[in-house]
Amino acid sequence: MAIVLGPNQYGKAETRLVHVTRDGAVHEIKDLNVSVALGGDMTETHLTGDNAAVLPTDTQKNTVFAFAKEHGVGEIEEFGLRLATHFVDSQPSIHTARVHIEEYTWERLSVGGTPAPHSFQRSGVETRTATVTYDGTRAWVVSGLRDLVVLNSTASEFWGYIRDSYTTLRETTDRVLATAVNARWRYASTEGDFAKSYAEARRHLVEAFAETHSLSLQQTLYAMGQRVLENRSEIAEVRLALPNKHHFVVDLSAFDLDNDNEVFFAADRPYGLIEGTVLHDDAPDAGLAWSE
Ligand SMILES: O=c1[nH]c(=O)c2[nH]c(=O)[nH]c2[nH]1
Q1: End-to-end CA distance of the chain
Q2: Is there a smaller number of Cβ atoms within 10 Å at the N or the C end of the chain?
Q3: How many domains does the chain have?
Q4: pLDDT digit string (tens) for 149-165?
Q5: For the whole model, what pTM was predicted?
């Protein structure tokens, strides 16, 4: 029986890059967290410690900063594509590159109603994400968002589920439905207006959440993915992970008070986690798009 090296990858994780565009007095800011994972001929470094095939993770980090200076950042999908193709195309020992980027949003401050030229506030909304994978021949782009917290204070029911000897949950035709949307979507191609696609996908996700009279979070998940696919032909597949942020009606009967869905205990954990994929049945092959 032999022991062999299985799948492996390596790279610099979570390089925090802030890029300021200083064209004149009005500045723009991009705040990114960039993670690189490379794969290739890495048997020797693992088995003998011969590092001839290894592009140091320190170099990868330097490349992220240097590319931001040399080419600017632009949309995170474009920055990811530039980096991923560079690592594979410049190093014979590197065969695949995956660049995962998170973007934190800053809003321009306003002073007396006038946009401030160089002052910003971190906005506490969702994080935009992009993952680019390149294998020397093909590239795949997955975009997304995470931690977009949304809540419907009605128009949500949950009943008709399995009841066994451990079931205590009461059926409801009116509950609070809240979740932190974690969505990723795969593009059919690597060309496109990624800023517009992001804004539109986000809008359709939110609108579907708000407009769906929900009989389960699963149903809402499907409606959200379906809405994106119906409206954005450049997107082939949507993957969603929706934590059910439970809001429990507090029993106030001990105080002689009724509670008609007005006072809730917002539970932190445990939470239901609803995950699903919605895709066109003739979607192009996903290839390495979702590889971790
Ligand atoms: O929308 C829901 N889906 C479930 O599967 C589930 N399970 C549960 O306890 N509450 C809920 N709500």
Answers
A1: 29
A2: N
A3: 2
A4: 999 999 999 999 999 99
A5: 0.96
Asked if residue 3 belongs to a domain, the reply is no
- Catalytic residue selected from 45, 57, 85, 277: 57
Annotated catalytic residue 100: no
- Binding residue per annotation — 218? yes
Same domain, yes or no: 257 and 291: yes
Whether residue 172 has its Cβ less than 6 Å from ligand 1:
no
Residue 209 belongs to a domain with what CATH number? Answer: 3.10.270.10
Whether residue 158 lies inside any domain: the answer is: yes
Domain that residue 66 falls in:
8-137
Output the residue whose Cα is nearest ligand 1's atom 8. 272
Cα–Cα distance between 132 and 45 in angstroms, integer? 25
Instruction: Identify whether the C-beta of residue 185 lies closer than 8 Å to the C-beta of residue 229.
Output: no
1 part of a folded domain: no
Query: In the listed set 92, 108, 137, which residue is the last one of a domain according to the structure?
Result: 137
pLDDT at 123 exceeding the cut of 90: no
**Ligand 1 centroid vs 274 CA: distance in angstroms?**
8
